[in-house]
Amino acid sequence: MRVLITARIPEEIVSTIRSEHEIEINEFERPMDRADLLARVRDKEGLLCTISDRVDKELLTNAPLLKMIANYGVGFDHIDLDAATARAILVSNTPGVLTDATAELTFALILAVARRVVEGDQRTRKGHFRFWAPLLFLGRQVTGKTLGIIGFGQIGKAVARRATGFDMRVLYYSRTRLDASIEQKLSVEHRGLDDLLTESDFVSLHVPLTDKTLHMIGARELNLMKRSAYLINAARGPVVNERELVEALRAGKIAGAGLDVYENEPKLTPGLVDLENVVLLPHVGSATVETRTRMGEMAAENLLAGLRSQTPPNCLNCSRLASVKAR
Ligand code: NAP
């Protein structure tokens, strides 16, 4: 069968897929532009795509032969799952293998924004480190503070585990509350969203982007946070109303923000880059050699299984497709 791979991935993974299928690959570092993507997917049975590719109704209509979409990533808000399911196209993702890398990066953001790591580095390089003084370049201590985690799935829990090393009190908000025994084991306390925002020194977002989580954090929620608190977003940009975040940061409603993702990625909301109390990363939550390799292996396993008419190990819509078939 014919497979389109929309981004450069490790060569050994490409070889594994090539051993069973004919491959077309985007050889450039940048994502495929829309017209190119639509043209090249037209005669393909398999698609290995990333967050940079919008897999919507238009693309699916344009790809009449498509059987299998293997997403290289855990979040799949860029794929119209309903439209793919209606066409009986299998869709998979790569859950779990990004957990540790993204939790690490979340902590990097927490520490960087609270201890002014990036600002300090920039000033030192510019020759502004001339002497040590007791009140110079003060940040906020992380140890012993309260961390509020919104979305307590795999990454949220991995962040909570790391927080115990900093003696933090951990609050969480998820729609499903854990059993009391598990809460106790993880040393976490459940809160409603507003209470979590009010009580936390650091609020860290780990929900998927859905119609329920779009703009979950805006002016009202930022107003509930302490003026000394920080917002961390390594989930998806549109979970936060970025314009209202810039206003809150400017007005000192919160102390700072650490962002890995943006509402209109890769564009930044005007005003964001002018703020000193933010740390801005280019969506690198999963960007470690180990994780990106494993993501590629999983995406390939899913793709190959789907094209062999087997159930991909990380299928997102197989149970829905099976229940449609059973009816
Ligand atoms: P996960 O295990 O599915 O966890 C997501 C959690 O969010 C679940 O526990 C879910 O619990 C909760 N949730 C969903 N909707 C909610 C709502 N409306 N209100 C409150 N909680 C809600 O996923 P994960 O592996 O932890 O990944 C989370 C997200 O991180 C991904 O979807 C992806 O977008 C993002 N991510 C970003 C990067 C990066 O590079 N920055 C890397 C990896 C992942 P309930 O359903 O019980 O509420």
Automatic annotation (TrEMBL):
Stretches assigned to the D-isomer specific 2-hydroxyacid dehydrogenase NAD-binding domain: 107-285
A Pfam entry, by short name: 2-Hacid_dh
D-isomer specific 2-hydroxyacid dehydrogenase catalytic domain mapped to chain residues: 3-317
Gene Ontology molecular function, alphabetical: glyoxylate reductase (NADPH) activity; hydroxypyruvate reductase [NAD(P)H] activity; NAD binding
InterPro entries: D-isomer_2-hydroxyacid_DH, D-isomer_2_OHA_DH_cat_dom, D-isomer_DH_CS, D-isomer_DH_CS1, D-isomer_DH_NAD-bd, NAD(P)-bd_dom_sf
Gene3D superfamilies: NAD(P)-binding Rossmann-like Domain
A GO-annotated cellular component: cytosol
Keyword terms: NAD, Oxidoreductase
Superkingdom to which the source organism belongs: Bacteria
Key word Oxidoreductase present: yes
UniProt family annotation: Belongs to the D-isomer specific 2-hydroxyacid dehydrogenase family.
Name by which UniProt lists this protein: D-glycerate dehydrogenase
Organism of this sequence: Desulfomonile tiedjei
